[in-house]
UniProtKB/TrEMBL annotation:
Keywords from the UniProt entry: Glycoprotein, Membrane, Signal, Transmembrane, Transmembrane helix
Function: May be involved in cell proliferation and cell motility.
Chain ranges passing through the membrane: 126-152
UniProt protein name: Tetraspanin-7
Length: 160
């Protein structure tokens, strides 16, 4: 049991160290994947498009760096900026979303990349605290399992 807990503890520790060391690569990959999701955005039930819509609605953002990122997409030439960027769904017409100057007043202008990364970084302390607490419980479990094993070997059970 102590060995199993030690293995799990080491896996979690390695994952945390790798995540910390490669955090800049994670950001870069996230930005490139978000750019790809914008480029391939469509209104079908594509999970990447749904993810973009969810991020934009939840964080009140639009595009990667800002709302004008949509201008370089195929979706923009057909339909304009997606409705998930609108500040108010009632006040967004398709004509407004096709014109960037009008859309600036009706959509969120901040990009999603900065908001997502800053949200992740602000929540990292909570994640680190929870992870540290779990690691402490694992270490206590490892120590108690070793003590129990030592006790069992020192005091052999008597046959009845």
């Amino acid at each position: 049991y102590a060995m199993l807990l030690s293995l799990i503890f080491l896996i979690v520790l390695v994952a945390a160290v790798v995540g910390f060391v490669f955090r800049h690569e994670i950001k870069t990959n996230f930005e490139s994947n978000l750019n790809l999701a914008l480029r391939d955005y469509n209104v079908t039930a594509d999970r990447h498009s749904e993810a973009v819509d969810t991020i934009q609605r939840t964080l009140h953002c639009c595009g990667v760096q800002n709302y004008s990122d949509w201008e370089r997409t195929e979706y923009f030439t057909e339909r304009g900026i997606p409705r998930s960027c609108c500040k108010s769904q009632d006040d967004c017409s398709e004509e407004d979303l096709k014109d960037l100057s009008k859309a600036k007043l009706k959509v969120f202008v901040d990009g999603c990349f900065f908001l997502v990364t800053s949200t992740m970084e602000s929540k990292m302390s909570v994640v680190a605290g929870i992870s540290f607490g779990i690691a402490c419980f694992q270490l206590v479990g490892i120590i108690l399992a070793c003590c129990l094993s030592q006790y069992i070997t020192n005091n052999q059970y008597e046959m009845v």
